[in-house]
Design brief:
single chain, three-stranded mixed β-sheet, 38% helix, alpha+beta, 18% strand, 3 strands, YefM-like fold
Length: 84
């Protein structure tokens, strides 16, 4: 379970927040009652970074790669009498 800390508690117990991030996993810090940041171990950070591929690699390995798609933009004017 992810621990949640109020920012003032996290500031006062930064060493404990870091230790728990290393031993137990991500620690969420809130600011004004809203989730603001997550403290994670450097090892977990590296795993996240390495798991992100390049966008060009994603598109080249997509099941749609090589398909002939019509990507022309419809340049007709908007419909008349539409009230939003």
């Amino acid at each position: 379970m992810i621990a949640v800390w109020q920012i003032q508690d996290a500031k006062n117990k930064l060493s404990e927040v870091i230790t728990r991030a290393l031993m137990q996993g991500p620690q969420v810090i809130t600011k004004h009652g809203e989730k603001a940041v997550v403290v994670i171990s450097y090892t977990d950070y590296e795993k996240l970074r390495k798991s992100q591929g390049k966008l060009s690699e994603f598109f080249s390995t997509s099941p749609l790669a090589g398909m002939d798609l019509d990507l022309k933009r419809n340049r007709s004017l908007p419909r008349k009498n539409i009230h939003l």
